[in-house]
Amino acid sequence: MDNTASGGDSCPSSYSNRVSGMAAGPVRASRFRSIMSCTAVLAGIAAATFALPACARCVTPNNVAVKAAFPDYGLWRPVAKAMSECGNVETSFDFDATTAFSQSDSGIGKGTQIVGISNGGLSRLMAQDAIRPLNDLVEKYKSRLNERQFVRAGGKIMAIAVAANAQVYAYHGQLFRRSQLQPPKSQADLFVLDKKISEQQAVDHSFSIALKPGWTASDLFLEMFLSTGKPLFNEENKPVVAGETGEMILAQLKKLAELSPPDPFEKENSAVLQDLMRGRAASGILWASSTPSLDKEDVSRVAGRMEFLPVPPMAPGGKPAAAVWWDGFAIAKSASPAEAEAAFKTILEGLDSEMLESARFEAIWLMPEYEPVRLTKAVIETIDAGAVLFPATRQVEILQGALGEHIGDYFSGKTEAAAFLAQAEADYLRIARERGLPGL
Predict the structure, then answer these.
(1) Smallest Cα–Cα separation from 390: which of 138, 125, 160, 122?
(2) 3-class DSSP state for residue 10?
């Protein structure tokens, strides 16, 4: 993976709270945390620090005391439990890269070697020179990892991703087969499918999308833009979303809205799930973390009938029109070589096959032993198809806010695409200068 993330530790992530009653083989038998604002996700984090007792299944005994600080997300609990099998590890669940810098100069507590982060925390920690490259440790222990876990920045591996989430394309496989329809290979195919589904009157709408102004619509815009390979900023740190590519994506979003059930510009992501579950749409774009609900027979009319693919690319042969959100770990730069290696080995112990067996439904895991199933394979395929990691930097956060503020005026026809994008760039520059961002 390549990564340019900084800013706050951002949602959507790959973790959840467990629920019962899921059919066999979802991402996990759990209710994934909904895709919401980062503030809402992090508001419920409660601090709890404790030393976990040693158990008997340690493969790589640890003779160096290490500390780990994780966010209080469900996926880290089984990892921490498995880490404790080798002893000499103290784990806390109060780490938040968006606030850690008020606690110490580096953002990492004194004596802490391992931190759990996601897209937003990486470059924030790198900017503080708080974490070390992991290339040497990866080379030594690479047999226990795979390529899709390596989060690179500046050509160096700076973090190891352990779980992921992404928007995916869900479609009614049974209906497609019965109607002899082929899944889309590009977004142009979505309109061909709409015509065929309308002719067959198989379902009211061929496609569902959520475009509520604000975070939801601006995220879709940014993920589509990133998938084209075009940069969001130039070498002077100024945004470059205005122009042909940005206007093309806005027009595409408006065209996709015409395929959707009523009021797509008022819908959050959860509404797409409802459209699919209730049979109002034959396909749609939604977060992989919400797909388990589609298989719940007590609430879904399409249980067991949905299939999943990466979001169709903007053009044939392109990358999926989606970005990857990840959770993973980094090692503190302050750790001595012996502490860094002990920390790396200890967390690999926490990511072993025994942990995966006990917590396979807690996340869309990225370790080599994880075997994706129907509800999870599209995320793995999205990564393997070269989708970018969402760059949750301070710059992107400001740009997303500027886009989200007025994108509704474009959807309603009050503003033309060129004028809207120019206004978003101007708003970004004003806010970035007020906040003292580099180069401005």
Answers:
(1) 122
(2) coil
Q: Element (H or E) spanning 92, and its range?
A: strand 89-92
Q: Report the alpha-carbon distance of residue 169 to residue 269 in Å, rounded.
A: 13
What is the helix (H) or strand (E) element at residue 30, kind and residue range? strand 30-32
CB 104 within 8 A of CB 69: no
Residue 331 phi, psi dihedral angles, 5° rounding: -115, 135
Q: How far apart are CA 115 and CA 290, in angstroms?
A: 27
Q: Which of 392, 405, 398 lies closest to 435 in space, CA to CA?
A: 398
3-state secondary structure of 128: coil
Please compute, for residue 113, the number of CA atoms within 13 A of its CA located in the half-sphere on the CB side.
21
DSSP secondary-structure letter at 233? B
Long-range pairs for 222-225: beta carbons < 8 A, 24 or more residues apart:
222/323, 222/390, 222/396, 222/399, 222/400, 222/403, 223/167, 223/311, 223/321, 223/322, 223/323, 223/390, 224/249, 224/252, 224/253, 224/314, 224/321, 225/249
pTM score, whole prediction: 0.86
Count CB atoms within 10 A of the CB of residue 280: 19
Which tens digit of pLDDT belongs to each residue from 286-345? Answer: 999 999 999 999 999 999 999 999 999 999 999 999 999 999 999 999 999 999 999 999
* Neighbour tally for 373: CB within 10 Å: 12
pLDDT one-digit tens code per residue, 205-232: 999 999 999 999 999 999 999 999 999 9
CA angle, 10 as apex, 264 and 118 as ends, to 5°? 130
CA atoms within 13 A on the CB side of 440: 18
Size of the chain, expressed as the number of residues it contains: 440
Rounded distance between C-alpha atoms, residue 44 and residue 119, angstroms: 19
C-alpha distances in Å from residue 209, one per residue of 19, 112, 370: 26, 43, 30
Q: Which residue has the higher pLDDT, 31 or 146?
A: 146
